Amino acid sequence: MAQHASHAAFGKQPKHAYVQWDEAVQWGCSLKGWNCCVDKGIAVRPYDLVRLRHALGRPSNEITSDETVTFAWHGGLLIGSLAHKPYTPGHVACTFFEEMTNVGARALRESDPDAFAALPERVRAAADAPAKGEYRVAGLCGAHQNRPEVCRAFPYQREVGLVLADGTLEDVRARRVNLCGSCALSTPTTPREVVATEDVAEYWRANDAFSAVASYYRSRGAGNFDDPRYRRLPLPQADLTQLWAAMYLPDSDPVVRERYPEQWRAPLDIEGDRAIHALVLEHALDRLDALLAQLGVDSAALGTKGAPDVPRPQLDRLLDPSREPIPPAAPLTFAPERRVDDAPRPEATADTSAA
Ligand code: SF4
Ligand code: SF4
Q1: Is the pLDDT confidence value at 13 over 80?
Q2: Residue range 53-96, pLDDT digits in tens
Q3: Is the Cβ–Cβ distance between 159 and 325 less than 8 Å?
Q4: Ligand 2 pocket test: which of 30, 39, 84, 94 has the largest number of ligand atoms within 8 Å of its C-beta?
Q5: Which protein residues touch ligand 1 with a CB less than 6 Å away?
Q6: How high is the pLDDT of residue 227?
């Protein structure tokens, strides 16, 4: 990828816009976090929470009981979000956001040389900057390696029209969700290059699996909709919330606890996290099926009237690490090669034949 040049100038472009995966854009992350970690609601889905356990070195039930992640209903689904903390007057920052200044970088070099050595090169260089005053160098993420999906490829995100039970995706589009403005650098790249370097495909597959389970839940009356056409399961609201909340609490699942005891202590375990996420979602499906059998309700009498029944998701296909979660780049096309011998010969003229 090309080197960062100057700060980006987006002019009057709208904040949200659909873009092409391979279109040329001028964008580079400055690491300052001014528009991605400040005054933003950061959504947390079940796999995000599996990963955040490693960032915090704590099990999921502790992360939710101390309200680092809280929950609310959005569009009939229970979705988590990260806590905020005060930032500058009138603004809040994500709970993991730590601003580093040139003075702070210098102090860290003295107090914790290992932590200083792990900082990005640009931040380390600021420790020796000749400037007299204190200035902001970067916004560091305390969960960087395991930060949620919405943070990873910011400001580009994937939008999926429909996730089918077998892992087929319909209407997958790239979207720029924000303008980083003066926070960003101006670097020639493409949205595909940006998301590739942010290592987000594992998250996308995991969230597709959750979306497929959510569709299954919705179609069997376990969505939380006010719409009078929606036929909800005959369950108290607290029980419905608990059904969904279980998807966010892998460490409360007895099978996970037995097979992966204290796995959250590892700094990173992508394969283990995939297996844990699969187990938790499989158990969520089993729990709903068992509940339907126990209540003796026919699934055809639940969910949105007239909408077809959603088949049970095939989690092994949805989570298969070889499944591509975005369309491949279109192959480059060239005009057919023409041999020199095939080139039309110019008619000989009186002048050239004479030469
Ligand atoms: S350039 Fe954008 S993504 Fe990078 S830190 Fe700034 S606001 Fe965040
Ligand atoms: S998790 Fe990290 S990248 Fe995401 S908003 Fe918080 S500090 Fe920023």
Answers
A1: no
A2: 999 999 999 999 999 999 999 989 999 999 999 999 999 999 99
A3: no
A4: 94
A5: 29-36, 154-155, 180, 183-184
A6: 87
Place of tokens 């790249």: 189
Q: What is the pLDDT of residues 117-143, one digit of tens each?
A: 988 888 899 999 887 789 889 999 999
Domain ranges of the chain: 202-318
Which of 87, 152, 157, 183 most suits a substitution to test ligand 1, by most atoms within 8 Å of the C-beta? Answer: 183
Alpha helix positions (H), the chain: 46-56, 60-65, 102-111, 113-117, 121-126, 149-152, 191-197, 201-219, 237-245, 254-259, 270-295, 315-318, 350-354
Residue with CA nearest ligand 2 atom 1? 147
Minimum CA distance residue for ligand 2 atom 2: 141
Give the ligand whose atoms come closest to the C-alpha of residue 142.
2
Tokens of 95: 């709970």
What global pTM score does this model have? 0.88
Does the pLDDT at position 10 exceed 80?
A: no
CB atoms within 10 A of CB 99: 18
